[in-house]
Specification:
Elements (H helix, E strand, L loop, with lengths): L2 E3 L9 H7 L8 E3 L7 H5 L6 H13 L5 H12 L10 E3 L4 E5 L9 H16 L6 E6 L3 H10 L5 E8 L5 H8 L6 E7 L3 H12 L2 H4 L4 E2 L6 H17 L7 E6 L4 H11 L4 E8 L4 H8 L1 E3 L19 H8 L4 H14 L1 E3 L2 H8 L2 E5 L2 H15 L5 H11 L9 E5 L7 H8 L20 E4 L2 H11 L6
Parallel strand pairs: 4-14, 5-6, 5-8, 6-7, 7-15, 9-10, 9-14, 10-13
Antiparallel strand pairs: 1-2, 3-4, 11-12
Helix pairs in contact: 3-4, 3-10, 4-5, 5-6, 5-10, 6-7, 10-11, 13-15, 16-17, 16-18
């Protein structure tokens, strides 16, 4: 499998190269040259496979010759052996049509663990083959940071620098990052910054020759293809349990950066019968406006009770626009350059029409989010977090055929956002026992001004150069 950049001019890489590179050198994102596809019989044959075996089977076409199937399966066994539920991503029924896919049984209680536990092992596997060191630079609006740090803490040949907007993540999210004291972990809280500001600094560093000539800069955000690849698996796992390939399934996905829902698009391209992907946003609704009206224009980030969705530039949306626009990298490069210059962009007719066949979108405000949390508790006995609630609201107003099951992706444990859940239900969710001492642990974090020079200088002083 070869990987090409969405902007058309970066070198083509294999899976190992794309995993270690993260962002392409032309500023684009790597995608497979073509989508592998399973027919109905092949999908049906996957029924009943344990999660790790299913994961290896689905990901193997993307991995190509970078790993044998046996080795990929062994890495999956290790990654998912750390989850607290043997099903890894279990299903819970809410009513006759609505289901929850619980993605929070990993070590940091969020869906990012499903991909990042594997990505940490892939980094270690590939770095062991060479004398290079990897400098991971990432931005987080909450969950990516803790999951990535847990996945690579203490691993050889890896340093991680995680940027978060100071005061804009929950206390649990912050502590899950800052209480990891491994020497290769560096948490940076940026003053006066939004997630979009943090992400812009990360992207700039990938294109700063002074940094990339000296350090091998890698990514754990969903700009890294390997992360999205691992997320494709749970769409298959869930759909198979609900009758695929003989029955269509819809998914409602809370998203800001478009990575999790793009994984659903990939699953559909691979042959999974998905009736609809519902893109759920909070009031930071650039994706809703883009999909509903073709208006991809950056607004001001509003802080909400669902901070992982407080985003106004959705990095992974570029992958969808590339695919729907005929995979014309040069045309997309010009389109994205216009957006970066003006902070506004209209989708082309081809992009709008292509998206309309699979995607709908729904925006949830604070009251609608709280109502969804309350409904899940009062009618189903389930405590859900604010991000999941935005998607559950979208699922319940989607108006789909009642015969089509709608699976809402439960992306974080309710205990990561106890105040919002308690306001809506009167119930304060407790942390699982495996992380119950979180608020007693020592924290370590560095505060910086939210400027590129401050971050780049900090990284340059502490990172390990490419060759040890």
């Amino acid at each position: 499998m070869e990987y090409v950049s969405t902007r058309g001019t970066a070198p083509t890489l294999d899976f190992e190269g794309a995993t270690l590179a993260g962002l392409a050198s032309d500023g684009g994102l790597y995608v497979p040259r073509e989508w592998p596809r399973f027919d109905a019989a092949e999908i049906a044959a996957m029924r009943g496979l344990p999660y790790a075996k299913l994961a290896a089977r689905i990901m193997q076409p993307f991995v190509g010759e970078s790993l044998t199937l046996d080795r990929l399966e062994a890495l999956c066994e290790t990654a998912y052996g750390r989850f607290s539920h043997d099903a890894v991503t279990p299903l819970v029924q809410l009513d006759g049509q609505n289901w929850l896919m619980e993605l929070f049984h990993g070590p940091t209680l969020a869906f990012k663990d499903v991909a990042l536990q594997l990505l940490g092992l892939l980094f270690e596997e590939f770095l062991a083959r060479s004398d290079r060191n990897l400098t991971i630079v990432g931005a987080t609006s909450g969950d990516t940071g803790s999951a990535a740090i847990d996945a690579v803490a203490g691993r050889a040949k890896v340093d991680i620098f995680m940027l978060h907007p100071k005061g804009r993540v929950s206390d649990v999210q912050r502590r899950q990052m800052t209480t990891v004291l491994a020497p290769n972990v560096h948490n940076l809280a940026l003053e006066g910054a939004s997630f979009d500001d943090c992400q812009a600094i990360v992207k700039r560093m990938f294109n700063d020759r002074a940094m990339t000539d000296r350090f091998a800069i890698g990514a754990v955000n969903s700009i890294n293809w390997a992360r999205l690849m691992a997320q494709v698996v749970y769409y298959f796992a869930t759909a198979l349990q609900l009758g695929a390939p003989d029955r269509e399934v819809a998914f409602s996905v809370p998203t800001g950066n478009f990575g999790d829902v793009f994984a659903g698009y990939v699953a559909q391209q691979m042959g999974l019968p998905i009736a609809r992907l519902i893109v759920a946003t909070n009031v930071n609704d650039i994706l809703y406006r883009a999909l509903a009206f073709g208006d991809y224009s950056q607004g001001t980030v509003t802080a909400t009770a669902s901070p992982s969705m407080d985003i106004q530039v959705s990095s992974n949306f570029e992958r969808l626009l590339f695919d729907l626009g005929g995979r014309d990298g040069l045309a997309l490069s010009a389109q994205m350059a216009g957006f970066e210059a003006t902070k506004a962009m209209q989708l082309t007719n081809a992009q709008r029409e292509g998206a309309a066949g699979l995607f709908t979108s729904c925006r949830a405000d604070a009251d609608q989010m709280a109502h969804a949390i309350r409904w899940a508790w009062e009618h189903c006995g389930e405590l859900i977090d604010p991000h999941t609630a935005c998607a559950l609201h979208a699922a319940r107003v989607a108006g789909l055929d009642p015969a089509v099951p709608i699976v809402t992706l439960a992306t974080a444990h309710a205990a990561k956002f106890p105040e919002a859940v308690e306001r809506a239900t009167g119930q304060r969710p407790g942390l699982p026992s495996r992380v119950g001492d979180l608020f007693e642990r020592e924290e370590r974090c560095v505060g910086l001004t939210g400027t590129y020079d401050a971050v780049a200088g900090f990284v340059a002083e502490r990172a390990t150069p490419k060759a040890g």
